[in-house]
């Protein structure tokens, strides 16, 4: 089976481009050009140079000795938290800002939930001297104040999304509306492996540097390129897409996704899309999404703003439906406990999103010599206030 | 013959009105449709509200949110419209986003539309190629006209494609914008209207987005067959309630 996008952007039955005609010229321009542009020698050279010198790649693959002892298997951490701006998000924004330049765009828009993608976008816009507008839900603006300040300091304008639930989904709607209103000079940097084709595929390709590095790094550590499992948390699914990419067609590698169960999958306050979702259309693609029987998109909940999304990228819907990946979900409490454990066993405070991936040990027992690579997608600095409140650290 | 087709053959310029079903109150739907027809409007777009209307500006977003809060669903809308053809004879079009239709079941939705006497559908996020590959046969089986949008950015090649795929009219979006956001038409719109007119398309065009008064209606229909008013009508309902629809239509023509 093929787990990559076909030329119309479908992963099995999922994907495609369900966009209003107003967006057609923009998306079509991107679709026609993205592969050609991103594999030009000059593009690859500039992209790789920036990943190396500016982002700080390759990010280490670290053998977590104490965590391994605790959970009885060999655990490696892919340290995306050490990237510039503190998460995997910058891999994609570097790629897309170069793409925007090649397409002659001068104005950048983005959506953000937790603010990580917004910061990564504002960063590359500062780097390239481009105008940057970030849409962020009014509620997220209030709960992610440090990232809002970062974006402003980087010269971006942060515009509150005041419609609907005033979170990530609505910020995405507002960014799409902006693109409709500014079709000529603007490029929309989507932060996750979602949206109309070619976005899920393009974002996956930019993030695939993660699994590309894991291969040769694991070879150095273990003498083999393929681990037994790769594990990542999933909201829209960009770090997961990048972590899985080079292993999707290696059948001996188990693919594991951990979604946010919030207060419990059946609590009514959850973001576990694979468990709660049905096939539908959100933000321009056909995918699994949380909705009412009437087809209205419902409000997800997670303690982590970055996983607080009612859908999941179409690639992941296909991995779920086809059985290629195992899907689990971790509650707020499990993710927070896993974050605390990682902090105290390895001296690494993860983002709460990432804490969900580490909660896998609550749900799955690995064998002693299993090599398990976990995507440490982001660092926890931005979440300190949530940690402080939750663990009463103050 | 489909009522839209018959209406398009009339010699006059057409005025069409969009409203969000279930707004201001859940059960206003039938009364609003009847009143619009009584006041000489030629065609109605009944908006099926959606939680995430990404081609719409704040006015239609807010009316959609309110309608959903009032309890509007696809099923309820169909129930409200069950006997609409006993009192209303102008063309009725349902306009909405694709996901609610997909969840209802595309064929079941189309069948219901035929039973009620709905003449056409406008689904901004159902793209041309998906429609042709998967759904055209179903729409045709139930006698529904599917209306596609074009914008100032749509290439001539694509406009020809859309013209070929259309069997009613083309919804001509007046400018690069979401609904309800531009104030008045300028030189840019005029040259766009003229460019499209010069293409001699087989389907007539009806202009939407940015029509709000007599002046914009006149400008839009100089070359196009008609114009659609949406946000301006909803704003009027918000301010004046549902009892003074006659006064609104008098402002247009």
TrEMBL record, chain A:
Its cofactor is pyridoxal 5'-phosphate. Signal peptide: none annotated. It catalyses: (1S,2R)-1-C-(indol-3-yl)glycerol 3-phosphate + L-serine = D-glyceraldehyde 3-phosphate + L-tryptophan + H2O. The keyword Transcription regulation does not apply. The keyword NADP does not apply. Belongs to the TrpB family. PANTHER family: TRYPTOPHAN SYNTHASE, TRYPTOPHAN SYNTHASE-RELATED. HAMAP family: Trp_synth_beta. This is Tryptophan synthase beta chain. It comes from Maribacter caenipelagi.
TrEMBL record, chain B:
InterPro entries: Aldolase_TIM, RibuloseP-bd_barrel, Trp_synthase_alpha_AS, Trp_synthase_suA. Its EC number is 4.2.1.20. One of its GO terms (cellular component) is cytosol. The active site is at residues 45, 56. One of its GO terms (molecular function) is tryptophan synthase activity. Pfam families: Trp_syntA. PROSITE patterns: TRP_SYNTHASE_ALPHA. It comes from the Bacteria. The keyword Repressor does not apply. Keywords: Amino-acid biosynthesis, Aromatic amino acid biosynthesis, Lyase, Tryptophan biosynthesis. SUPFAM superfamilies: Ribulose-phoshate binding barrel. Pathway: Amino-acid biosynthesis; L-tryptophan biosynthesis; L-tryptophan from chorismate: step 5/5. The keyword Amino-acid biosynthesis applies. It catalyses: (1S,2R)-1-C-(indol-3-yl)glycerol 3-phosphate + L-serine = D-glyceraldehyde 3-phosphate + L-tryptophan + H2O. The alpha subunit is responsible for the aldol cleavage of indoleglycerol phosphate to indole and glyceraldehyde 3-phosphate. HAMAP family: Trp_synth_alpha. Tetramer of two alpha and two beta chains. Belongs to the TrpA family. This is Tryptophan synthase alpha chain. The lineage of its organism: Bacteria, Pseudomonadati, Bacteroidota, Flavobacteriia, Flavobacteriales. The gene is trpA.
